[in-house]
């Protein structure tokens, strides 16, 4: 089969690599002049920052991608993934804080007990409730293609449950700080917890069980590794080539429309926001994108506070500091995200939290949510949660149009490095080996 993959972000790269490995003739088209999308690096004045994700949960998803398309990930990296001792530090308005470790139930109990006696047990009781949730998701949604019209009984029950994450956190925690920690991933991705199904809190279980991991040299290294993998597998890569629409004949995809004409296809993998393609837009009209945060990539010099990989400042606005950028000697590279009512420069707001780095800034790259979405042809935060039905309105891995498949943050199983990576695996399963 001749397959065109639309989009050169993580989902597109992973889909192309997997499909080429199982014998298909693959063409990848990317509107930007370079590959990577949200996973790519941002560089200025000798400083380099990860464009979006700086770490990943469930590293097995990346390992499986590389193993199923060629050499193992660690062999390509020349080393091991780096575990984070502290996944996130949370700082609250009452000046208390907690550093959340990953990969250990006992370590999390100890960490939360430092926040208050008995809070460790309260935390793990909440997280424990997600063990069966993950089992259902893994078996019926994350690891195998799913059909929204034909759900297994336990997945149907999970997706039909009316409880929201907001309600679950209020029920499980008397201390509001634990609720802030448990819900912060969804809030950071732009969701209102009153519209998020309770099962989405499974992320906290994944952190506890699998931990969080970084790639040596930054997550953007994945782009270079996958680009080389595509070359090895004979994938044709067309950068600077925007897909305008799909041509559908007799309810089956026939071609991809690009600026220079049409590319005939047997199948298409859409790894961008499907709203970008007029043929698919009506299929997702009941969904909205989750808007990215305001982002400031900061190049710093001189002494700065010694912070873990990620610090969440729970206030208005919500701010997240990520510290894993690459800098020249004597420098430090941070990325600052802001959400909420942003009425001042983020560095001014940061200074009110006693982290004053205004005099250390020598370069910065400021990006608005709109600029990020336009640059990446979609939001890395995926689809906005608007209630329990949202999960059924996302496309992927298959779509109602024969021969059209969907991958990426806007498709099943959702946003985040492991889920976006896994969306490519689902597409490869749905299409199957070349005949």
Automatic annotation (TrEMBL):
GO molecular function: oxidoreductase activity
Residue ranges constituting the Amine oxidase domain according to the UniProt record: 10-278
Gene3D superfamilies with a match to the protein in the record: FAD/NAD(P)-binding domain
UniProt cross-references to InterPro entries, sorted A to Z: Amino_oxidase, FAD/NAD-bd_sf
UniProt cross-references to Pfam families, sorted A to Z: Amino_oxidase
Sequence intervals crossing the membrane: none
Protein name: NAD(P)/FAD-dependent oxidoreductase
């Amino acid at each position: 089969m001749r397959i065109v993959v639309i989009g050169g972000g993580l989902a597109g790269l992973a889909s192309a690599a997997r499909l080429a490995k199982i014998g298909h003739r693959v063409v990848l088209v990317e509107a930007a002049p370079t590959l990577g999308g949200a996973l790519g690096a941002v560089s200025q004045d000798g400083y380099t920052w990860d464009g979006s994700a700086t770490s990943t949960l469930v590293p097995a998803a990346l390992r499986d991608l590389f193993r199923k398309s060629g050499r193992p990930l660690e062999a390509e990296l020349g080393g091991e993934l780096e575990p984070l001792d502290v996944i996130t530090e949370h700082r609250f308005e009452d000046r208390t804080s907690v550093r959340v470790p990953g990969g250990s139930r006992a370590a999390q109990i100890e960490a939360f007990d430092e926040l208050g006696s008995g809070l460790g047990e309260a935390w793990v009781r909440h997280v424990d409730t997600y063990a069966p949730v993950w089992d259902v998701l893994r078996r019926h949604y994350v690891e195998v293609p799913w059909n929204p019209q034909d759900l297994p009984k336990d997945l149907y029950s999970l997706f039909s449950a009316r409880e929201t994450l907001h309600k679950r956190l209020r029920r499980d925690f008397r201390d509001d700080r634990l609720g802030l920690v448990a819900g912060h991933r969804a809030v950071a991705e732009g969701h209102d917890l009153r519209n998020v199904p309770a099962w989405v809190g499974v992320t906290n279980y994944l952190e506890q069980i699998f931990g969080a991991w970084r790639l040596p040299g930054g997550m953007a290294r994945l782009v270079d590794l996958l680009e080389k993998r595509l070359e090895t597998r004979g994938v044709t890569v067309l950068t600077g080539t925007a897909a305008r629409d799909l041509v559908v004949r007799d309810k089956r995809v026939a071609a991809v429309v690009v600026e220079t004409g049409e590319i005939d296809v047997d199948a298409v993998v859409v790894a961008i926001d499907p709203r970008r393609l007029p043929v698919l837009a009506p299929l997702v009209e009941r969904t909205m994108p989750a808007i990215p945060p305001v982002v400031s990539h900061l190049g710093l010099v001189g002494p700065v506070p010694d912070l873990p990989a990620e610090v969440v400042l729970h206030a208005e606005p919500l701010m997240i500091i990520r510290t894993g950028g690459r800098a020249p000697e004597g420098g430090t590279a941070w990325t600052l995200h802001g959400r909420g009512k942003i009425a001042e420069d983020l560095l001014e707001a940061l200074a009110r939290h006693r982290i004053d780095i205004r005099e250390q800034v020598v370069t910065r790259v400021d990006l608005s949510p709109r600029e990020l979405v336009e640059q990446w042809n979609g939001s890395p935060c995926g689809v906005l949660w608007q209630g329990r039905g949202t999960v059924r309105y996302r496309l992927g891995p298959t779509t109602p149009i024969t021969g059209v498949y969907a991958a990426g943050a806007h498709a099943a199983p959702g946003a985040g490095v492991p889920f976006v990576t896994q969306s490519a695996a689902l597409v490869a399963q749905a299409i199957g080996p070349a005949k």
